[in-house]
Give the backbone structure.
Amino acid sequence: MQNLILSQLCDPAAVREVISSHPDAERATGAHERVLELGLTTSEYVGPEARAVVVYAPGRIEILGKHTDYAGGSSLTCAVNHAFFIVAARTDEPGVRVRDLTLDTSVFLGYERPFESAETSWLRYPASVIERFVQNFGKPDCGVCLAFSNAIPRASGMSSSSALVVGFYLAIAALADVQRFPRYLSNLKRPADLASYLGGVENGYTYKELAGKRGVGTRGGAQDHTAILYSKKGMFGYFGYRPLRRLETVAMPAHTRFVIGSSGVRSRKSSSELGLYNNAVEIAEAGLDAWNHALEVDFSTLGTLVSSPVFSLEKLAVILETHGKEEARAIMNRVEHFVVETTQIIPDAIRFLRNGDLCGFGDAVNHSQELSDRLLGNQVDETRFLARSARDHGAIASSAFGAGFGGSVWALVPSEEANTFMNTWIASYGRKFPHRIRNAQFFTDPTGPGAFVLGASARDLLLEPQL
């Protein structure tokens, strides 16, 4: 799309023209109103002739694949219509001026030391993006002033944090003309590189020659960033990780919708739940390390190990006999969950979807939910109840998703029954957990597209071709 100037995003007629130029933008809920509001907000700081972009970064649903990506497994995901919208414009300030319309806050994050102004937990995400961009590619020749609003329930397990990382990166990269930076061109050559790199921005890991930094404290993988960037409307993406690749695209069952129930138990990766999340990572690594050390081999991920013909859970149990009983049990549970989720449940679920067998799909999802609770141990009473009651009220399938320890549950239901189902689901949850219902959020969603940018080249930003 041709370059935009900020004045185009401050006039209702011009905004309608800009939005109508992109089919995904045209279908995005509330796009015209949100972009106009964000444009007017940005214009309070920036002149009307400044170059500008509009960034859309959605939340995601992890249909299957709980805690699998960082261990080299696979997952089934899609994007939702609930998203961040960002309007950003070039400035002369050496940094990024941020206005959050949802929380009504404003801050300036300098290029030199962005974390100095990151006083609240959510600011660690844009600060990480800025710090890594400058370290890895170089300081942009412009500043960025941006305003954003968020329709994704925060700390809900729908990956609002990763959407924020993706959105901020795309805004800075577009306005800084990232394709002009040599280290960008030599390290990020295809869409899989971008998603993997942004996973590294969040977890602090090095990617190729792009050195890691502090990140936000999580030790996750690139599943969320992949779904946010490269989902397709009405489709489920089956992805493998480490290395990242698209394995298959499966159509969402016809005449169905997702109903999302955000439990009101906040899943904060930046607070006390961080240790619980990272503990799942560490236990997976412990299982891999125990195998490699005992047999003097060097499997790089749990995924490569369990797909090898030499692997068996029985052999791993023997290896772990030298470990303490509690440690051995934790490792066996963690590895068994990974094996069953990635080698049995997900392939079976995809086969059922291809064949139109919704009963079989529902059974596979039920198995995943039960396994997550029993072996992964990342469920709470509220998410257990939401998944069970969704099935009791007629959902085709239902599961908790995301990091766990709170967060959300998805339910797949016939489209014509979605609103009735949702109201019944809300009522049952309110009766069971009256102290949670005030902070809970429920909504329907038909799935949406991945991220896009208006006012910059999708190909230069590695948004095309699709992964």
